[in-house]
Structure formats: structure tokens, C-alpha cells
């Protein structure tokens, strides 16, 4: 087995490299989730009430770089209406058509079952809205479509069977079967209680604003409360940390097993050149006169 300059064979290098690559990716995700979790832990939790303006007026720049507010969604002007339920109104509306896929192999299904849903059509619209506090104080929400964590209420879901035709032939080459199309309609309804995490500012005219942080921190609009949001990111941080350690150990274990297997094969096989040299005396030489 060919050895590189560091003493690793090709198989050993592949095992070590794959383990380190996956572990490195998991570590990157761990650091990313941990950064967000730490920012959520350190964010200022502010009530939307009459004291909010007074707090921002005495804050440098009349802003809080990363703050948490919770309020009830209320449109500024005319709200959006559901296409399937005309009596339901909201401020963010999403219509999506996806194509769920089924892996013909058990490995594909295990790895990609929950993620392999190519989007065939997607339309997201929004109207200006505020988060209203208990005493009527309102915070204007900016750029809601840039926010993370906005899992809206599902209003409509329908599966449509698709005609396969010659696409059946492609199943055997791709290992993936498309069995239907899924139409969904989601909406952030008026009256929903939402947690917003971002940059909180006070304009000279007295308008309160929530917008994406200028320092690149994660911007959130979530139907979950603040404590639930923190717990979700804390759990994700721990999970990615475990994955990083597991794949690093798996790479080391694969390297150790490969090295041990190669050593055992070498030990059992022996050195063919030396064996040949030692057996020269046992070779029978037939005299030419006997032939």
C-alpha cells in the first residue's frame, strides 16, 4: 500500500480527511449556533409599554443594538386576505408548491427524507405591521421577510398526484421517486403574539422601530416566546458540539482500524522476497542426463 510523505496510505488519508472534514463542518455549525445562543442570552428583554420611549431616549443613539420585545400583530393599513379562507387576514402570506421525494434506497430516505422537497413555486408577500403592547404602545416591524424563525400558521394543505410518464425511467438512475406535489398556504395572522429580536430604535418623531441588527446578529420574528427560543438554540448548540466530537472520534477510529488491518495483513503474509531466499536450498535440481 503506497505511503505518503507523512506515512499515511491513501485509505488512511481518506478516512482521516473525511472524519476531519465532517467534524470541522459540525464545529463550524456549533460555533455559529453558540454565537446566536450567547447573543440571545445577553439580549435586553424590553416590555412594549409607555416606559419604552423613556428608556430609549436616555440610551446612546436612542437605540438598543440587540433587544427582545413581545407584542400582538396589528396591520398598518389594509391587511392581506387568505386565498382559501376569505375571513382570515394577516400581515405575511406565503403560498408554496413543493415536490416531496421518496428515496428508493433506505440510506437516501434516512438522510434526506425531511429535507428533499424541491420548491416549484413560492410567493411571499407582506404589508407593514406593528407589535402592539398591552397599553397600546406599538413597535413598527421592518424587513419581516429577512427574519429567522417565522413559522407561520398553516391555513391550507393539499397533495396532488402527478402523472409520471417517462419520468419512471429516471427513478432508476437518480434513486429518487417523486410521488406528489404539495400545495400549502401559510399566514402570520392579525392578533398573533410574536416575539421579535433585533435592533430597537426611536425615531425623532417618536416612532419605535424593530429592524435587523446593523452588526450582523441574527434577526428573529417567532411565534414562540423568548424562553422557548433560547432553549431551542441552546439545544442546537449542544447537538452540534456532540456531532463534532462524534465524527472526530469516528475518523480516528476508522484510521486506527485501517492501520490495524493493514498491519495484520502484512504480519500474516510475511515478506515474499525473504521467503524465496530462504527456500533456495530446498529447490530440487534435475540432472540434464535424466531427461
TrEMBL record:
One BP term from GO: protein ubiquitination
Ranges of residues in domain E3 Ubiquitin ligase MUL1-like: 111-251
Pfam families given in the database record: GIDE (PF12483)
UniProt catalytic activity: S-ubiquitinyl-[E2 ubiquitin-conjugating enzyme]-L-cysteine + [acceptor protein]-L-lysine = [E2 ubiquitin-conjugating enzyme]-L-cysteine + N(6)-ubiquitinyl-[acceptor protein]-L-lysine
Membrane topology, from the record: Multi-pass membrane protein
Predominant localisation class: membrane
Keywords, ordered alphabetically: Membrane, Metal-binding, Transferase, Transmembrane, Transmembrane helix, Ubl conjugation pathway, Zinc, Zinc-finger
Protein name: RING-type E3 ubiquitin transferase
Organism listed in the record: Parambassis ranga
Amino acid at each position: 500500500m503506497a505511503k505518503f510523505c507523512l506515512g499515511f496510505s491513501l485509505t488512511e488519508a481518506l478516512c482521516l480527511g473525511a472524519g476531519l472534514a465532517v467534524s470541522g463542518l459540525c464545529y463550524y455549525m456549533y460555533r455559529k449556533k453558540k454565537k446566536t445562543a450567547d447573543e440571545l442570552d445577553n439580549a435586553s428583554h424590553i416590555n412594549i409599554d409607555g416606559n419604552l420611549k423613556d428608556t430609549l431616549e436616555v440610551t446612546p443613539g436612542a437605540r438598543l443594538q440587540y433587544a427582545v420585545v413581545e407584542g400582538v400583530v396589528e396591520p398598518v393599513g389594509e391587511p392581506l386576505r387568505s386565498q382559501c379562507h376569505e375571513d382570515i387576514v394577516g400581515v405575511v402570506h406565503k403560498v408554496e408548491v413543493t415536490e416531496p421525494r421518496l428515496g428508493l434506497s433506505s440510506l437516501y430516505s434516512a438522510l434526506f427524507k425531511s429535507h428533499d422537497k424541491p420548491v416549484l413555486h413560492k410567493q411571499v408577500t407582506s404589508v407593514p405591521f406593528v407589535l402592539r403592547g398591552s397599553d397600546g404602545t406599538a413597535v413598527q416591524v421592518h424587513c419581516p421577510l429577512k427574519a429567522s424563525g417565522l413559522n407561520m400558521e398553516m391555513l391550507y394543505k393539499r397533495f396532488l398526484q402527478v402523472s409520471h410518464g417517462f419520468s419512471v425511467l429516471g427513478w432508476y438512475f437518480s434513486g429518487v421517486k417523486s410521488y406528489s406535489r404539495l400545495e400549502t398556504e401559510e399566514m402570520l395572522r392579525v392578533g398573533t403574539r410574536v416575539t421579535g429580536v433585533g435592533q430597537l430604535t426611536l425615531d425623532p418623531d417618536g416612532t419605535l422601530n424593530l429592524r435587523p441588527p446593523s452588526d450582523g446578529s441574527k434577526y428573529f420574528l417567532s411565534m414562540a416566546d423568548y424562553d422557548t427560543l433560547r432553549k431551542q438554540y441552546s439545544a442546537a448548540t449542544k447537538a452540534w458540539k456532540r456531532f463534532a466530537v462524534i465524527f472526530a472520534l469516528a475518523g480516528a477510529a476508522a484510521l486506527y482500524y485501517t492501520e490495524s488491518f493493514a498491519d495484520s495483513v502484512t504480519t500474516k503474509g510475511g515478506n515474499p522476497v525473504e521467503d524465496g531466499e530462504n527456500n533456495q536450498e530446498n529447490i530440487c535440481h534435475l540432472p540434464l542426463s535424466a531427461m
